[in-house]
Amino acid sequence: MLTKKKLFACLGIMIVGVLALSGCASSSSSGSSGSGLKTGPGVDVAHKTITLGILSPYSGPVAAPIGDPLALGVEVFFDHVNDNGGINGYKVKFVREDTQYDPQIEVQKYQQIHNQVLMIADSLGTPTTFAIKPLADADHMLVYATGCAQSALRVQRHDWRLG
What are the phi and psi torsion angles at 31 (to 5°)? Predict the structure, then answer.
C-alpha cells in the first residue's frame, strides 16, 4: 500500500513534469500568448488551463481497491493546486477514461484522448501501461504510470516519456 509520503512524492514529481512540459510545449493548436509561448495539446492559453488524462480502471476487478482511490488521489492533489492558484496561474482539469484494467481498452482510450491532453497523469497497471507504450513514445507523451514493473520505464535525455 502506498504511504501518504510516497503518494505526495510521486505527485510532486508529476507537478515538476507538468511544469517542465508546459514551458516546453512546441506546436500550437490553441494559439500563443503575447509573450510568444507556443502551446500544444492540453495547454489552453486563452482559458489558462492544462488538461491531463487519467486512464484508470473505474470498473472491473481492480477499480475499488486501487483504481478509484488512486485516480481520486491525483484529482484531489490537483484540486489543492488549483485552490492555491494553479500552476503559474493555469488551472488543471482532467479527461478521465475507464480502462477496466484491459490493455486493449487502454489503447482505445489513449487514442481517443492523446490529442486533448498534455500528459497522462495516471495510467494504472503494468499490462495496460505497456499496451500504450509504443503510442506514447511516438507522441512524446509523458505518462505517469503506476504498476509493478516501474524499472522497465525510463527517462531519455530531458524528455519525460516512456521509452
Answer: 95, -170
